[in-house]
Automatic annotation (TrEMBL):
Residues 32-97, 102-165, 175-237 form the SH3b domain. InterPro entries: MurNAc-LAA_cat, N-acetylmuramoyl-L-ala_amidase, N-acetylmuramoyl_amidase_3, SH3-like_bac-type. SUPFAM superfamilies: Zn-dependent exopeptidases. This is N-acetylmuramoyl-L-alanine amidase. It comes from Vagococcus humatus. One of its GO terms (molecular function) is N-acetylmuramoyl-L-alanine amidase activity. Keywords: Cell wall biogenesis/degradation, Hydrolase, Membrane, Transmembrane, Transmembrane helix. Gene3D superfamilies: SH3 Domains, Zn-dependent exopeptidases. CDD domains: MurNAc-LAA, SH3. GO terms for cellular component: outer membrane-bounded periplasmic space. The chain crosses the membrane at residues 12-32.
Length: 426
């Protein structure tokens, strides 16, 4: 009796030891697979969950180290600032080219620095900035920074800027006015998103800057209340339509060039232009524009191959796409009896997306706009993500066919979709 009790105890002790040893080995193994990455864009949003539907909880800045804990739908859950965890878009860590909403104080470090309309030396000059001019960086792309300065905004080559560190900022920014960048900007009791909300501000509403506290500002409201506001939701310049927070860099967009392979789609009246070729060229032009903003773009095909309709929606569902767009060109029963573009949606919840995209198509494309319509298409029906199907002109209309096959029109489509999605994700 005594013996067997001892035996059992010993066995238990041994198995406990083995469990402890195994636990140590496993934790060492799992520690080993954690990858540490360094933030390369000027700043990136950290969210409470793996998509842009979740709130921004913090930002990480260039040079910060992130430990990747897990991956889900192309988002990484990371550890940062020693003990905080949150989610970042994985492609922004790996492509290192574009950063989403930021609000970084910087100074021009070179005399006669050009402020330009686009991030290229060929683009139009908006202004010439003196050395030491203070600017606010709101995003960065391919080595260029988008800045606001004295109610103007535009692109400056990033190397011509010195980013201010917090100490300098504290000195320079005292007695300055901050503006809320969006409706519902929260002033809290503590510098943390877990703390109580004192009051909320409307877009453009003024508050008084008191001091820096990490990624937060201590502020005083117009009626004298003291509190904290996250530095990524306010700006030192009055906000206008261009410096709203845009999250497009954090989105996954699936583009579907209609038809392909043995399925040519519709043909032009002279049978020289195939719908499948025009849809591919158009979608590739859109891909280029969206990638320039840092978005994660997934193409359902990139060459002349056939993808089943169920496979197309599946791709969008698996990627948990923020938006899916299928590109097509129409055909009427008789040649040259119809012309123009139509935006199709299937789910009622996609009507706001359809309206936004269609309003840009209407404004920016030269063809007649036939509006938005319900469309019972399988790529929309099987899609669980926000989805549209665009018919961007008629293949069997001689005028439309000539236009839609041109690079110029495809570029216009690309810009219209880009501008629409910037609106949609602002
Ligand atoms: Zn088609």
């Amino acid at each position: 009796m005594k013996n067997s009790f001892m035996k059992g105890n010993k066995l238990r002790l041994i198995s406990l030891n083995i469990i402890i040893i195994l636990m140590v080995i496993f934790s060492l193994l799992s520690l080993g697979k954690y990858k540490v990455v360094t933030v390369d864009p000027i700043a990136m949003n950290v969210r409470t969950g793996p998509s842009i539907d979740f709130d921004i909880q913090s930002q990480v800045k260039k040079g910060d180290k992130l430990t990747i804990l897990e991956e889900k739908n192309h988002w990484y859950r990371v550890k940062f600032n020693d003990n905080d965890t949150g989610w970042v878009a994985s492609w922004l860590v790996s492509n290192k080219e574009t950063s989403p909403a930021t609000n970084i104080a910087a100074k021009i470090n070179t005399p006669k620095t050009n402020l330009r309309e686009d991030p290229t030396t060929e683009s139009k000059k908006i202004a010439t900035l003196d050395k030491q001019t203070k600017v606010t960086i709101t995003k960065e792309q391919h080595g260029w920074s988008y800045v606001t300065v004295d109610n103007k905004e535009g692109w400056v080559f990033s190397q011509l800027l010195n980013v201010e560190n917090n100490k300098q900022q504290e000195k320079d920014l005292s007695s300055e006015t901050l503006f809320a960048r969006q409706d519902g900007t929260k002033i809290r009791t503590e510098p943390s998103i877990d703390s109580q909300v004192l009051t909320t501000l409307g877009r453009g509403e003024k508050i008084h800057f008191l001091e820096n506290d990490g990624d937060w500002y201590q502020v005083k409201t117009a009626n004298g209340q003291k509190g904290y506001v996250a530095n990524w939701v306010v700006s030192f310049g009055k906000p206008n339509k261009h410096n709203k927070i845009t999250s497009i860099a954090e989105t996954t967009i699936v583009l579907d060039p209609g038809h392909g392979g043995y399925d040519a789609g519709s043909l032009s009246n002279d049978e020289r232009i195939y719908e499948k070729n025009v849809t591919l060229k158009t979608a590739l032009a859109v891909e280029k524009e969206l990638k320039s903003l840092g978005a994660n773009v997934i193409m359902t095909r990139r060459d002349d191959s056939f993808i089943s309709l169920s496979g197309i929606a599946g791709k969008s569902n698996r990627a948990k796409a923020d938006v899916f767009i299928s590109f097509h060109f129409d055909s009427s029963q008789h040649p040259n009896e119809a012309s123009g573009t139509t935006t199709y949606y299937y789910n009622e919840k996609d009507i706001p997306l359809a309206e936004t995209v269609n309003s840009h198509i209407k404004q920016e494309l030269p063809l007649t706009n036939r509006g938005t319509e319900f469309g019972d298409y399988q790529v929309l029906r099987d899609n669980h993500q926000p989805a549209l199907l665009l018919e961007l002109g008629y293949m069997n209309n001689d005028g439309d066919a000539y236009l839609i096959n041109s690079k110029d029109y495809q570029k216009k489509v690309a810009l219209a979709v880009k501008n629409a999605l910037m609106d949609y994700f602002e």
